[in-house]
TrEMBL record:
<dbReference type="GO" id="GO:0016301">
    <property type="term" value="F:kinase activity"/>
</dbReference>
<keyword id="KW-0472">Membrane</keyword>
<comment type="similarity">
    <text>Belongs to the TspO/BZRP family.</text>
</comment>
<feature type="transmembrane region" description="Helical">
    <location>
        <begin position="43"/>
        <end position="62"/>
    </location>
</feature>
<feature type="transmembrane region" description="Helical">
    <location>
        <begin position="129"/>
        <end position="149"/>
    </location>
</feature>
<keyword id="KW-0808">Transferase</keyword>
<keyword id="KW-0418">Kinase</keyword>
<feature type="transmembrane region" description="Helical">
    <location>
        <begin position="5"/>
        <end position="23"/>
    </location>
</feature>
<dbReference type="InterPro" id="IPR004307">
    <property type="entry name" value="TspO_MBR"/>
</dbReference>
<dbReference type="InterPro" id="IPR038330">
    <property type="entry name" value="TspO/MBR-related_sf"/>
</dbReference>
<protein>
    <submittedName>
        <fullName>Sensor histidine kinase</fullName>
    </submittedName>
</protein>
<keyword id="KW-0812">Transmembrane</keyword>
<dbReference type="Pfam" id="PF03073">
    <property type="entry name" value="TspO_MBR"/>
</dbReference>
<keyword id="KW-1133">Transmembrane helix</keyword>
<feature type="transmembrane region" description="Helical">
    <location>
        <begin position="98"/>
        <end position="117"/>
    </location>
</feature>
<dbReference type="GO" id="GO:0033013">
    <property type="term" value="P:tetrapyrrole metabolic process"/>
</dbReference>
<dbReference type="GO" id="GO:0016020">
    <property type="term" value="C:membrane"/>
</dbReference>
Amino acid sequence: MKKALVYLIFVLAVVTIGAFVGMNNVPGEWYQSLNKPFFNPPNWIFGPVWTALYVMIAIAGARTWLQSRMGGRMQLWGSQMLLNFMWSPIFFTMQSPAGALILIVPMLICVIAFIIMTATRDRISMWLFVPYAVWVGFATLLNASIVYLN
């Protein structure tokens, strides 16, 4: 029962905070006016993708918490989560693609480091982070392209 509660808390917290950040930092007219690369996905795709990713991130976080609350993997998980939640306010609200690019690079590094550190300790958490790493890698390329084009 205790494990189920940890999973529930992590999923609810991550998805709720992610939704709150997303709803309070929406792309507006400023974003629409930017030059974007040909591979920029439609806006509607971000909500479903991030919701699925946040559930996977939360499950990996809960698993890590249950295994080692104060260990290096949990610190990496927390660091990438903090950077993740800071990206939208910097990009959309502060209207700073360059600032967001500076932030997303260490975020990607934390995600990859989490995967590497988790590979031998918890393969499930490692695999839960792989789609996230791919998406953040894509987002980094997209962010860099927007900086370049504008």
